[in-house]
Amino acid sequence: MRTLTFILTVWLLIAFTSGCSTLFSNSLYPVMVRSNAQNVQFEVFDCFQNRILTGVTPQLIVLPSSYLPFIRQRYTVLVNDPDYESAQMPVTFHIDGWYFANLFIPPLAPIAMLIIDPLSGRMFTIDNYCRNLNFNLRRTNFTSEINNIDDMPHPEVTTP
Fold first, then answer.
1. Which of 4-13, 26-35, 64-73 has the lowest mean pLDDT?
2. Per-residue pLDDT averaged across 121-150, rounded?
3. Predicted structure pTM score
4. CB neighbours of 5 closer than 8 A, spacing ≥ 6?
5. HEC profile for the chain?
6. In angstroms, rounded to a whole number, what is the distance separating the alpha carbons of residues 122 and 10?
């Protein structure tokens, strides 16, 4: 009888402290940022336009999926290099399918869906197209080979 009570207690503790998304999903997701040009600088902005990190391509970054409970995060990756045209791509998230698996456990569904999974930050997952960001950058038309004012061509002056 003691063993049965212990097993039941452990099962209830696990059931009341975890939801399906919390058990089977993540709250941090890797994103690979690449470009056709090497060593191009990029910046990542959150949904409030705060710069949260900077880097150089190619680089693997890790982004959290939620901002607050029930609020998914959105990011914008901006590539800005003087030799190339600027480009940007969004990084978005959607509700994880494991979140709805809580419905298969009716007594625990309200607790898991309204408290546990949102607080853990694991109720959202990254959109598949956002896992690898590949920027195809075009060179700008303006390229300068003048590094010093002395390198500038001087107009020829002819005296009459």
1. 4-13
2. 77
3. 0.72
4. none
5. CHHHHHHHHHHHHHHHCCCHHHHHCCCEEEEEEEECCCCCEEEEECCCCCEEEEEECCEEEEEECEEECCEECCEEEEECCCCECCEEEEECEEECHHHHHHHHCCCCHHHHHHHHHHHHCCCEEECHHHCEEEECCCECCCCCCCCCHHHCCCCCCCCC
6. 23
Contact 118, 69 (CB under 8 A): yes
Half-sphere exposure for 132 (CA within 13 Å, toward CB): 3
- Inter-residue contact 118 to 41 (CB < 8 Å): no
Kindly state the tokens that stand for 115: 């408290």
* C-alpha distances in Å from residue 104, one per residue of 20, 109, 154: 10, 8, 80
pLDDT at 18: 58
What is the structure's pLDDT at 53? 93
**Residue 67 C-alpha from the chain's centroid:** 12
Per-residue pLDDT tens digits for 31-90: 999 999 888 999 999 999 999 999 999 999 999 988 888 888 999 999 988 888 889 999
